[in-house]
Design brief:
alpha/beta; 22 helices; Four Helix Bundle (Hemerythrin (Met), subunit A); binds guanosine-5'-triphosphate; binds magnesium ion; 434 Repressor (Amino-terminal Domain); 8 strands; 9% strand; 3 domains
């Protein structure tokens, strides 16, 4: 996500941190780098100059000296960037909630509904979706498919051209949900017809939140769209999609901030799990390469259900961690998205990603897949007590044969499981089973060194 901006910002902060003196040459070069990086990320030019002028001014403020000055400037850069990337839209759920999604053609409304509905469903809410996009022929079928994938109830009426009729027809069933997700039609532009349709829908469904869905690749144009939709649909928050694939995301983010609408979520890919709640601070920490533990934890919590977490937590506290537990961890890793996305979120491992060459992460994912096959070929007894495998070559051979892996794959899996077990025991003795941020950081560092998947 915004790789270019991220590496440029990292370079800038490194340049400041590593400098012996903050002399004029250095400040000039930092400011130039910064301007280039932000403008390339499509941030509005006057805004870029506002920030860089502030930095220049502070850098030449004689009252602040030495290290303090460096810290001061990095902090200033951080604060300014947080300010321009905008505010988070806090969603407060009521007893009954209706979330309406509006936006232009192909901005990602339908896909996003699947993602957010799944997000809330995993947190124990009763959710359903209603397809009120009556213009595109395949729209309702697409919503149904997305909802099926997310395991979410979906009400559609193929062929019905009046969105209000669809709503009225299913009103009773809809009312059983805590949160209703309403999909609406897109258009090439916010024309009179769309305004009329949205107004009618708003009047009928009475949304508690109206989300404007915009694609990051429209860059600064987001400002105009946000302004228009804000007035028509009473937009209360924004979802920015395609943050994974757009270099212009800086423009979209800062444009929303300018209009004053908070960003609730960002879409980072096409899969159901490719969604993050937007946290300006965390987002920026990641851009600057400081890692963002909070986002990672959020993701983990959304993938593994609560009961499962409690069960695993208990097992961890007791120092028991079987291959079955490893298997469910591996499963959730698969759902979390690719390894490199996860690495980027773990403090201390963010730059590991840059150090290991292309292709290495894919190989790791391949390995994870093979391990899952290995575990599937084991007997329940072997899964619960992997130690029994260590001395029995014939068992290892059988598993390798059954899973299409090599015996060294099986051995490696057992070795890694042992190592994880050791780590967990060590951590339990350190923390009496509690995971706080500091221990997590420690483990992450250790994890980076020791565990080779
Ligand atoms: N890379 C990437 N693709 C996305 C993301 N969100 C949506 N898409 C893709 O964008 C395309 C359009 O998404 P839809 O959900 O159909 O958009 P829509 O706003 O419902 O479109 P209309 O109903 O035609 O107005 C699809 O191919 C999605 O897979 C994202 O966060 N990242
Ligand atoms: Mg759609």
């Amino acid at each position: 996500m915004l790789e270019k901006l991220s590496s440029a910002l990292k370079k800038t902060t490194d340049k400041i941190a590593n400098a012996v003196f903050l002399d004029k040459n250095l400040v000039d070069s930092v400011v130039k780098d910064l301007q280039r990086a932000l403008i390339e990320a499509d941030v509005n030019v006057p805004l870029v100059f506002e920030i860089t002028n502030k930095i220049k001014k502070e850098a030449f403020d004689e009252r602040i000296k030495g290290i303090e000055k460096k810290e001061h400037i990095v902090k200033l850069l951080h604060d300014e960037l947080v300010r321009i990337i905008g505010k988070r839209k806090e969603i407060v759920l009521g007893k009954k909630n209706v979330f309406l999604f509006v936006g232009l053609y192909g901005s990602g409304k339908t896909t996003t509904i699947g993602k957010i509905a799944s997000y809330y469903s995993k947190r124990g809410k009763r959710v359903c979706a209603v397809g009120l996009d009556v213009h595109r022929a395949a729209a309702s079928e697409q919503l149904k498919q997305v909802c099926d994938k997310a395991g979410v109830k979906c009400f559609i009426e193929k062929g019905e051209k009046n969105p209000l009729k669809i709503w009225k027809k299913h009103k009773k069933e809809i009312e059983e949900s805590d949160i209703v997700f309403v999909d609406s039609s897109g258009r090439d532009a916010l024309d009179k017809e769309l305004v009329r349709e949205i107004s009618l829908i708003v009047k009928e469904v009475k949304p508690t939140e109206s989300f404007l869905v915009i694609a990051a690749d429209i860059g600064q144009t987001a400002k105009k769209q946000a302004e228009m939709f804000r007035d028509v649909a009473n937009v209360s928050g924004v979802v920015i999609t395609r943050m994974d694939s757009s270099a212009k995301a800086g423009g979209a983010l800062t444009a929303c901030a300018e209009v004053g609408v908070g960003v609730a979520f960002i879409g980072t890919g096409e899969k159901i799990g490719d969604l993050e709640t937007f946290e300006p601070e965390g987002f920026l920490s990641r851009l600057l390469g400081m890692g963002d533990l909070k986002a990672l934890m959020e993701k983990i919590h959304s993938v593994v259900d609560k009961k499962e977490i409690e069960k695993q937590q208990k097992k961890l506290e007791e120092g028991k961690f079987t291959l079955r537990d490893l298997q469910s961890q591996l499963d959730s890793m698969g759902e979390l998205g690719s390894m490199d996305k996860i690495l980027g979120m773990i403090p201390g491992l963010g730059n590991v990603k840059d150090k290991i060459g292309d292709g290495v992460l894919e190989t790791q994912q391949e390995k994870v897949k093979r391990w899952k096959h290995c575990i599937n070929s084991m007997t329940p007894e072997e899964i619960e007590n992997p130690e029994i495998l260590e001395k029995q070559t014939s068992r290892i051979q059988r598993i390798a044969h059954g899973s299409g892996c090599s015996t060294s794959d099986v051995r490696m899996l057992i070795k890694q499981w042992k190592m994880l077990n050791e780590m967990i025991k060590e951590q339990n003795s350190l923390t009496e089973g509690k995971m706080d941020q500091k221990t997590m950081m420690k483990l992450a560092r250790k994890f980076g060194k020791k565990i080779r998947i």
